[in-house]
Amino acid sequence: MLTLCFDAAHFGNTEAAGAGWDGPSNVTFTVTIDGGTDMTIVSIEDQGTNSNPAFDLNCDLVGDAGNEITNTFTTYCFDFPGYGTNLDLLININGLNEAFEDIGIDNIAIYCEDDEADLPVIPLVSTDNVRGNNNSYTVNQYSFI
After folding, report:
1. CA nearest 10: which of 77, 96, 90?
2. Could you tell me which of 53, 33, 52 has the C-alpha nearest to residue 44?
3. What is the pTM of this model?
4. Which of 93, 116, 122, 127 is the most exposed place for a label (fewest CB within 10 A)?
């Protein structure tokens, strides 16, 4: 199983008038293995006007309540299927163009572990029907838009 892990934090003051993310604002993490089809692993989305960003785990382009990014760096992990030799990671940041619209991302890593106990945290989204073959992957590309 391949797993994308990263630390994320949101430092906007949603208590202030006009603060927080406005739509459409999002950060998407997309991978391509061996030049194949792009696969979006996870998206962080707004939850409406002046909202805290949150992970969109049901793919409706709206951040999900209970999955908000806080102002403390926290490690998040997401499983995804794949086999190959090279992996390209694309991080798209869109719509963060107003005051208090921010995101901090650090310690990005891709793991190939069969045992979730070997990961920094248990994945928020897991696709247990596919297991890795202990290949090593090279992250070739980071793109910030």
Report:
1. 96
2. 53
3. 0.79
4. 122
Distance CA(111)–CA(79), nearest Å, equals 9
pLDDT for position 93: 94
Please give the structure tokens belonging to residue 121: 């945290």
Q: What is the residue type of 61? A: L
Per run of 10 residues, the mean pLDDT along the chain (length 145 residues) is: 89 64 92 92 92 91 91 90 88 88 90 79 52 32 33
Distances from the Cα of 49 to the Cαs of 19, 22, 66, in angstroms? Answer: 9, 4, 17
How many other C-beta atoms lie within 10 A of the C-beta of residue 66?
8
Task: Tell me how far apart the terminal alpha carbons of the chain are, to the nearest angstrom.
Answer: 28
The residue type found at 19 is: A
What pLDDT is attached to residue 139? 37
Strands, E assignment, the chain = 2-9, 26-33, 39-45, 54-55, 74-80, 86-94, 104-112, 138-139
Please report the pLDDT score of residue 131 as a whole number: 26
Contact between residue 14 and residue 69 where contact means Cβ atoms under 8 Å apart: no
